[in-house]
């Protein structure tokens, strides 16, 4: 129980990687607040969290709205009196070639992925600084490091998260608050399940380990970065991609 009595907020926590992270933290004793726009999936996931013997809280949240993020922070403090851990996982894609990309598709991805990370960090970090403890992990992407055709908006948002991570880490390090980013490669989720087989095969050829990552691979890395064993690590971008980018 490495995280006994800690309070963790996970955005995009209703399913996929976010849900797997929440379950991993809950198994180690953390009370988990799951935030998402999908209320139905949220309630199911919180029920799974509570079945592990910890407290859960579901909050419908659009991370791109600062007012909603502030309300979320107040609700968590009202219930748990503190926030120890923040996992900025919420993200969307609106793929398209640059020449054809609509302005609204650019704005939507930047608003959720990058501004959402800023909003949630801004809301929770004040309390972390006050009690001189906090762990923030931002979910970036390999695409933010190497780019990808058809994903200019997504790549820009994830590269922005990396810059935000490093700047925030410098600002809060003296108060025992760490801020790190994880850059996953191709992870086996519902998003990859719908890809054509020939696309999957082409992806696998780029990965030296010849397999997709799993949400559990990512959640294990998150667990390390929010625990005591990583207390001297901050401002880092940890890749988890099977060797695809070195």
- Structural class by secondary-structure content: alpha/beta
Task: Give the proportion of residues in helices.
Answer: 40-55%
**Total beta-strand segments:** 7
Query: Overall mean pLDDT score?
Result: 96
The total count of helices amounts to 9
Brief sketch in words of this structure:
It contains 9 helices and 7 strands. The chain is an alpha/beta fold and 246 residues long.
Question: What does this molecule look like?
Answer:
This protein is α/β, with parallel strands linked by helices and 246 residues long. The protein is built from 9 helices and 7 strands. It has helices at 16-27, 39-50, 66-80, 103-131, 143-146, 152-172, 190-193, 197-204, 215-226; strands spanning 7-11, 31-36, 56-60, 85-88, 134-139, 177-184, 237-240. The chain has a 7-stranded parallel sheet with strand order 3-2-1-4-5-6-7, sandwiched between helices. Helix 2 links the parallel strand 2 and strand 3. Helix 1 crosses helix 9, helix 3 (66-80) packs parallel to helix 4 and helix 4 packs parallel to helix 6. The relative contact order is 0.14.
List keywords for this structure.
7-stranded parallel sheet; alpha/beta; 7 strands
Show the helix and strand layout.
Elements: E1 7-11, H1 16-27, E2 31-36, H2 39-50, E3 56-60, H3 66-80, E4 85-88, H4 103-131, E5 134-139, H5 143-146, H6 152-172, E6 177-184, H7 190-193, H8 197-204, H9 215-226, E7 237-240
Parallel strand pairs: 1-2, 1-4, 2-3, 4-5, 5-6, 6-7
Helix pairs in contact: 1-2, 1-9, 3-4, 4-6
